[in-house]
Design a protein that fits this description.
Helix content: 25-40%
Strand content: 25-35%
Strand order of the largest sheet: 15-16-8-7-14-17
Structural class: alpha+beta
Radius of gyration: 26 Å
Mean pLDDT: 88
Number of strands: 19
Shape: elongated
Distance between the termini: 27 Å
Number of helices: 5
């Protein structure tokens, strides 16, 4: 089998992966609080290195060609999106490492972090996320109920006020090690490790009320990246076709035995 065929196939697979990541970024260009994914690519070592073989068992020429490429760890860019005007129950977090906590107040394992600060009230009068109705937690980890209050707003200190009285303060946490966060979709992150150690509660938060964070995706950049990845897939695919043609010539033309 042609060694170059394997190298070209690795190029196709890795660039298909890059294409998917860039397409997902582009699809979330209008998703509030979305964080851009960056696909990483790493070089695969030659077989003699990867397999730990004795140097004499390898081919020096093939070793110099390398082993192709692998898809590396996917990274998340936590650069804050721009604040855009929202409603009375929307908040924008100013610092890149600050997050709101959502989930079930009775199930700590369900707690997730998000920067998508677009909220409303459900039928029970609870403060919930606008996209799927997940409860928003207060500083003590409880659900937030508006009660009979009609005029609701969130202050610059992250407090929910109703009819001129403070009802609760949003649970806003700071994460120093952003690598401990794992994306789960819906602009949410799961904490790897002990939750309270990774996500420390901010006692005196400062937010921008009546604004919500826009997506971190730059639509033009994502489109250009997706086009670049698509071209790389095509180029690697063409190399596979060329190697296939060379093998066909070697077997059916150069290797033909005449009598």
């Amino acid at each position: 089998m042609s060694y170059g065929l394997y190298l070209s196939a690795s190029g196709v697979l890795v660039n298909l992966y890059r294409q998917d990541v860039f397409a997902n970024n582009l699809a979330n260009a209008s998703t509030h609080g979305f964080k851009v994914d960056t696909p990483m690519v790493r070089q695969r070592p030659p077989e003699v290195v990867e397999g730990g073989f004795f140097p004499g068992d390898s081919n020096a020429l093939l070793d110099r060609l390398g082993g192709g490429v692998f898809a590396g760890p996917q990274r998340v860019r936590f650069t804050p999106g721009q604040p855009v005007p929202g409603g009375a129950l929307d908040v924008y977090l100013k610092e890149a490492n600050q997050f709101l906590v959502v989930g079930s107040p009775t199930d700590p394992a369900s707690h997730r972090l998000t920067r998508q600060g677009s909220f409303n009230l459900d039928e029970e009068g609870r403060l919930v996320t606008s996209n799927d109705g997940t409860p928003v937690l207060d500083a003590a980890g409880n659900a937030i109920f508006a009660g009979e209050a009609t005029s609701l707003e969130i202050s610059a200190k992250g407090e929910l006020w109703g009819d001129g009285a403070a009802i609760a303060r949003l649970r806003i946490v700071a994460v120093d090690d952003l690598d401990a966060l794992v994306k789960e979709g819906a602009s949410r992150f799961r904490v790897e490790g002990e939750f309270d150690r990774v996500a420390r509660v901010i006692e005196s938060p400062a937010v921008t009320p009546r604004f919500v964070e826009s997506s971190g995706t730059n639509a033009i950049d994502s489109m250009m990246q997706m086009i670049s990845a698509t071209k790389a897939v095509t180029a690697s695919g063409n190399l596979i076709r060329y190697h296939d043609q060379l093998m066909d010539r070697a077997v059916n033309t150069l290797g033909r035995v005449t009598t």
